[in-house]
Amino acid sequence: MKRYVRVLFICHGNICRSPMAEFVLKDMVSRRGMADQFEIASAATSTEEIWNGVGNPVYPPAREELAKHGIRCDGKRAVQLKAADYDHYDYLIGMDSMNIRNIERMTGHRSGDKIRKLLEFAGSTADCRDPWYSGAFDETYRDVVTGCTAFLEYLEREGRI
């Protein structure tokens, strides 16, 4: 029996790391023929990239890094995390420790089974590197691929997919 998994990736602005993770995971599950088993999205903990209710598109260097790997993110615009997302999604995956604290504050729930940091799935306590400050979108991409690969392996081990 096929299972259905809802995943929300979350970072500060929803224009770099979380959309990179959203589209990398969408690509991974599509290549495995499992896209129909997933709902994958991303959101921000802040409103800095949302103006008059309209979110900014994926930051150009993040979009370019994805394109280098054949991944498109057309149409994606920043949206803010809502408390109700906790009930809708099976996993709320933050990119760094500050994201986790903000997710907890915004949803009223503590990290654990549903709220996790991306690289935890790869056995690391490290944060997914923020390219906003470093400009190293290739390093962030590698972190995202590592985390998403480990997340899929986790779901397989747990019998979720």
TrEMBL record:
Pfam families linked: LMWPc (PF01451)
Xref: SUPFAM superfamilies: Phosphotyrosine protein phosphatases I (SSF52788)
UniProt xrefs under Gene3D superfamilies: 3.40.50.2300
Keywords linked to the UniProt accession: Hydrolase, Protein phosphatase
EC number: 3.1.3.48
Family per record: Belongs to the low molecular weight phosphotyrosine protein phosphatase family.
Catalyzed reactions: O-phospho-L-tyrosyl-[protein] + H2O = L-tyrosyl-[protein] + phosphate
Transmembrane segments: none
Protein name (database record): protein-tyrosine-phosphatase
Chain ranges of the Phosphotyrosine protein phosphatase I domain: 5-154
